[in-house]
Amino acid sequence: MRCYGNIHEHKTKPGIGLRWWAGVFLVLVPVPLHAQSVIVEIGPVQVARALAAVVKDPAGDPLPNVEVEEFTSDWKQALRSAKTDANGTFSLTTVKGRDVYYLQLSLDGMDPLRVRVKVDHWRGKKLKLMMRVAT
Q: Which domain holds residue 108?
């Protein structure tokens, strides 16, 4: 900095203004935060009367618009999908010769849920699934 009487000459480094604006931008622009989700897997194969279920939240309320996907047994490829209705119910048609169905349920704000289902019209029960809130 040079001084000429009462006048001061300031030399600025190139790019300081750009860095300042970039910093302001980063502070003022909201960054969306998402809850971490953990895939919850129901251990034993569930035996159900049909490939259908009621999906509820921890309070027992039905969950509409849950994405229900059937996967291959290695969980790598989705085969088909459905969504729960306003009452939290979904159903998929059974496939002749398929023994166990690998289903994953997903909804924003909830932990994904994986369940294996075997359909037995005589021994099965009505399937009820509960998703938990992501933390």
A: 40-130
Lookup: tokens for 130: 């509960």
Whichever domain contains 85, its CATH number is 2.60.40.1120
What is the pLDDT, as a whole number, of residue 31? 47
Which spans in the chain are helix H? 16-28
- Residues 6 or more apart in contact with residue 126 via CB below 8 angstroms: 48, 49, 52, 53, 54
In this prediction the pTM is: 0.74
Helical residues (DSSP H) of 5-87, grouped into ranges: 16-28
Rounded distance, CA 23 to CA 33, Å? 19
**CA–CA separation, 70 vs 85, rounded Å?**
17
pLDDT digits (tens, 9 = 90+) for 93-125: 999 999 999 999 999 999 999 999 999 999 999
Residue 4 falls within a domain, yes or no?
A: no
How buried is residue 106: exposed, middle or buried, by Cβ count under 10 Å (0-12/13-18/19+)? middle
